[in-house]
Every structure is written in C-alpha cells, then in structure tokens.
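Re: the request from the purification team.
They wanted to know what the chain is likely to look like in 3D before they choose a buffer screen. I agreed to run a prediction and write the result into the notebook, where they can find it.
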Amino acid sequence: MIKTIIFDYDGVIVDSFPTTYAIYKVICSKLNKRLPSTIEGFKEIYTGVFTKLYVDLGISKDESEAAENIYREEVKKQNPVVFPGIKDVFEELTKKYNLVILSSNYTFNIKQKLKQNDLENYFSEIIAKTDLIVDSFNKTQPLIDFIEKNNLKKEEVIMVGDRDVDYMHAENAGIRSIIVEYGWGHTDKVPTPNPKIEKPIDLLKAIELVDH
C-alpha cells in the first residue's frame, strides 16, 4: 500500500523546459558560450544533469560559479506554466496520500512558484537544492534519507518523474516510479505505464493501478 508519493517538479508539475532554455540563453550570452539555436537542439544535449550540460556548453569549472549565480538570478524572473489539470490531481491524491516534492531545482524557487499557483498546501515537504553552489544534486540519497526518517517501507513510497534520471534514482533507492510522457522527455530504455500518462489527470489511474 502506497503512503507517500514523491513528485519531481520540473516537467511533472510545471512546463519549465522553455524557461530553462531561456535561462541558458542568458548564461551563454554572458559567458560567451554557444547554445543550440533551437529548443529541440537544447533538449538533445540536456540530460537533466547540469554539470554535464556545463561541459557540453564549454563552461569550465572556473566559470561554473558565475553560471550558477546567473541561473539563480534568472530563475526568479521566470514563470513556467503549471500543467493543466495537475491541481485537480493533487486535490484528489491528498485525500489518500502524503505528497512530497524532490527536485534538483532551488527550494526558494519552487516555494515561490507553488505559492503563485496556489499549490503550496498540497505538499508536506520540499526536498531540493538550497546551497549557493552545488556541483550536483543526486536524488538517490535524499530518497533513502526520506524513507528512513519517516519510518517508511520502500513499497510504501513511489516517485513520479519525467526523465531517465528520475527512473534511475528511484531504482537506486529501491522504490517504484511512474514516468510521465508529457514532461521533459525520456528514452525508450525507461519503462512507462500502460496506458501512457500523456496528461496529468492520467496519473490518477496509473497510481490506482500501482496501489492495488
């Protein structure tokens, strides 16, 4: 029986890939780096691990602090669109489950955007980046720590994500995951529910099937 559902933020709750592309346009412009000219080209090189993206964009370790500082400032200016229907999904799920967010985004940014969209009260906890400079945010250990801290069994927790890395972190932590189709995108190596989750409302049926 599932007790807690852990949601990724970008690509599951908000359609933030266009705003992320806009942020990296600013970063590359200020650091004199070349960015793919289309959002499709950017998606091809962005695996969800920003440290790898820095390498692909030619951002050196010496420049990474400047890039991260630019990101932190620019993300405050962005207002990604909440996926249609996701609030109704949370409204229904909170009747039965504890909802948590786990993201490699910044805590201050997530809290701000949730409040703007009247979504902040659906989540008991937000696990995300808080430091000024973070080389990497590996979700596996925070998942393990959360399960242990709350005395949960692994079968009582499920993660909802949209990328290969979300599936990988859930698998490494020993929990099940649901990977949506409407987010940032994943490869065919990642198992997806049948039927596929092509819009947020489809999550209700998918979770019901898992929690049977």
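For the purification team: The two ends are 7 Å apart (CA to CA).
Please add any questions underneath this entry.
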